[in-house]
Amino acid sequence: MSSTSHQSNSESLLSAHQIAFASSLGLQCESNDSVGGTVLKIEQRLGQQSMREIARWFLLSVLQHLHNTEWSEVEESGLSVDDQYALAEAFIETDEYKQSLLTVLKDPRFRFTLLGFAKGRNPERRILSMSTKAYRQARDILLEKGLVDTEQATRRGRRPARNKPAISTAVNRRATRRGMLPDGNSLQIDVPKPVAAEPTEEDMSEEEFAELEKVLDDGKVEGGQPWTYQTNEERYSLILGILAGACVCVLAIWLLL
Length: 257
Prior knowledge:
Structural class: mainly alpha
Strand order of the largest sheet: 1-2
Strand content: under 5%
């Protein structure tokens, strides 16, 4: 990490863990010392072991979070120092996860101290997001080593169940129009029975057809077949025939005048 990055956080305060760890390395520091400057001194003192130490603190932080507890000292984890470093080496043996860890812990406030985890990141409170690749990898290593069970590994990241919203969103309104409820069940709608259309003036009633037949006085068509107009089509044909004949007669009289 560059000194410029450290200096950008010079106004931050050291955590109790950072002060204690720096003291264990023989470095003198106070709580009001620069975080960036102190972390840089720790990394210079550790040399090539700096990455392993960073991973150790991060793994212990994840372990603390999955156990839903808060430790004052890392010794409260119950793991020996050798076991702690073995976990750290397993974590950083893959370059992809090592790079992810360096990205997550870019801010010196997150290094060499126990951290908290939540859905969102809060540097002032030293809280990181649970959605990072580094967190998931640390969780998987702890699960594989039997340091947490499956329930612990999944419980902290589980989202609370939400009540189903009322039918008010655009999606639900569209589903309702298509006859479906938000839960996938069919929407029962009472459909009114169709009402018979009122007859128009162009339609002839049975009584009107009866009167027409009476006027024709049971006339016979050529061939001796009785004129029986029992369907609307036949009745319309008769009317059209009569109207056509009347038009021809009127036209002929008009021409003769």
